[in-house]
């Protein structure tokens, strides 16, 4: 169930080699961080095409997630829990998700949305 509907969606700034020297931004792909109201945070590979291999989620807190933020350089995600009174710091590593999305596309899986 991925913890219910998404209630926070944050653009992750491109990191290092992802930056295109021509315009200072990533190419035509990038990543979004998301959080649901309870338990789950994750990453979504851009462009949004509906392919389930282009997203991942993990259980970050045992209950409510009260806040989520991404560092200015795009390397860390911060989550704050509700009743668990904890703040977690997560390293953002996009290579695995990017590889899964690319493998899905190479197997001939067509995007749902173009």
TrEMBL record:
Domain of life: Eukaryota
UniProt keyword annotation of Transferase present: no
Predominant location category: other
Spans of repeat WD: 58-100
UniProt GO cellular component terms: motile cilium
Protein keywords: Cell projection, Repeat, WD repeat
Database matches in InterPro entries: WD40/YVTN_repeat-like_dom_sf (IPR015943), WD40_rpt (IPR001680), WD_repeat_EMAP (IPR050630)
Gene3D superfamilies: YVTN repeat-like/Quinoprotein amine dehydrogenase
Repeat listed as a keyword: yes
Places the protein is found: Cell projection, Cilium
Entry protein name: Cilia- and flagella-associated protein 251
